[in-house]
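UDP-3-O-acylglucosamine N-acyltransferase
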Amino acid sequence: MPTAIELAKQFQASLVGEGSLSFDSLAPIELAQSNQIAFLSNPLYRQDAIESAAGALILSQADYEFLKDQAHSKNPNRIYFISNNPYATFAKVAQLFAKTSAPNYPAGVHASAVIDPSAQVPASCHIGPFVHIGPRVKLGERVCVLGNTSIAENSSIGSDTLLYPQVSVYHNVHLGERCIVHSGAVIGADGFGFAPNFSASGGEWVKIPQIGGVRIGDDVEIGASTTIDRGAMSNTEIGAGTKIDNQVQIAHNVIVGKACVIAGCAAISGSTKIGNFCIIGGAANFAGHLTIADRTTVSGNTSIIRSINEPGQHFTGVYPSMLHSAWEKNAAILRGLDKIRQRLRFLDQKKSEK
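Structure:
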């Protein structure tokens, strides 16, 4: 395992303590032992950090200054990694440790896999049992396709991308490099497009062919059972670095910018454009044909029914949505409504007595 000084150099952290020490894992601050690294990113847990038996702690300069004297008296041998962003540094260190316990997917093709002769599958790829790879599919180097996954014709998967079991990739879908797609995800299913054709005597919903594709950038993660529909005539697009949670619905022709995060059960209706660096809470939902500005934050369970044009705003509310600051004020009023009602009744009674 790397030493403390090696970790500090690799992750641009300042080191306080013995640089030759090494650690074998990470752990929560309240459970960590002398051979483990913990992290502190919320000042509410400063007391837990003081009491912790962790052999090393990732934290900010301000937190270190606050607890260094008390913590040293309780744990004099602990070392500290001081970072401008302790949470992100913890995540990077965790990635390093995770590599030692991650499953190994050796290069090769399982005997039960079915691969069309026209598909391009480099020798460095891992193709698991009962995988189906269709005509003219192109895989990059070191792609891992685990059991029961299907990749349909004319799709491409970038190098170092991992598809977990039972992922369905439809035709004309293009995933970038280093993507992770979790089990049960469906990429490229038909968008929900039907034209009404009704009269007084009856009618039907006429299916609109969904002939676009899906294009997904590099370093995108897609959660389990998430669905990303193909476009009707142009592509549905997901920008590089975006992270999508489980059971999210992204409809046809949606465009999601780069480095967004979308939490579980969110739903984005067709042709809506989400800007870059947006944060979307769980079960939030968007009407169709909207434009959402860069760096917008949408709280969980919020319904967005109109475009957001000013960057960097935070919206909250089931219906209607509003600026988060306005929602907090209204929520405070709601909590006091009963007292307001009682006060009004008292004033009405006094007025009637006069």
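DSSP finds six helices and 37 strands in the chain.
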